Amino acid sequence: MPPDERSIIHVDMDAFYASVEQFDRPELCGLPVIVGGLGPRGVVSTCSYEARRFGVRSAMPTAQARRLCPDGVYLWPRMARYEEVSGQVFEVFHEVTPLVEGLSLDEAFLDVGASLRLLGSVEVIGRRIKEAIRERTGLVASVGMGPNKLLAKLAGEMSKPDGFRRIAAKDAAVELAPLPVGRLWTVGKVTEQALHRLGIRTIGELAASDTARLAGALGRQAGVMQALARGEDDRCVEPQQAEQSIGAEHTFDVDVSEQALAESWLLRHCERIAARARERGLYGMTVTVKLREPPFVTHTRQAQLRAPSASVADIHEVARGLLATWWKAQPRPRLRLLGVSLSGFAEQRQPDMFDPVPAVRAPDSVQDRINLRFGSGSLVRAGVLRTLKQD
Ligand SMILES: [Mg+2]
Question: What is the pTM of this model?
Fold first, then answer.
């Protein structure tokens, strides 16, 4: 099929983390909800549309958000809960096509070309996705549709929040023309400024500009950029790669110079990644510890497990050794950030209750069951408790 006659759907949840919080706690509906790091170095992850009215935006320092919106509800992210909802959302995607390319927990491209005969037009499929997400999660997704990734994503963005829109190939030039060039895929801040210097401010102006002159300023990417400005984009939807690594990390509000405290955090990260690995039926061989000294010097230390595992005890034993070796070698050890990840997955399979899994030790499965029932973090090892005070 010619690339520009494909049926691509872009789905993006509206204010995802904040909407999950409002759904779980209905008393927060209608209030400005800001989810992010709440310490002095924190950054806003997501904010509700009510908070956006005060000028709060994601990636903004939380301190700045507090000045703009002092009466907002400020919450730490609950990643385990967002991952759970994300799982439900992606289940909906996989019901309409296997060609799903996840961009984040709440955003994906779907190629539904092969599903049209069975399920109906791209709009019918888009509507079905939107409704199924609403029914199963209570949350609102914006859905954009188009003949390629570029137009599908822009269609969704242009109709957000609660978006639903399709841009057909024949309408692309007209629809795109008035948009600022910065909205175009591949146009970052630097390119945008370069285009502004050439007097090009809208996508329409970019499409109509002289190619030779543009190439003089931007080099070889000029041609690609003009094709995008005309609404042409031949990128494929690339279905999910196998998971490469599972990690957890934390930036400390106050640099950590006490080894025992660093070890508590390390254990907390190990519990989290081991639980996620077990959820996905993954058994990793490689443990990596990431250590950042203030301000921004980052070291990584890596070691192999004896056998593929998803057990906290196995991962922690190796991670702890790596931390201890690094710690001893520093004249004045101090950490701004500490992270752990598990990779080198030996096998990948769905967890099966009839399938004995020797690598998972009994305490882990008890912990998994309790946390599943009472919420993530309900049961943690005693060594982790010190880190919880700091949240
Ligand atoms: Mg989103």
Answer: 0.66
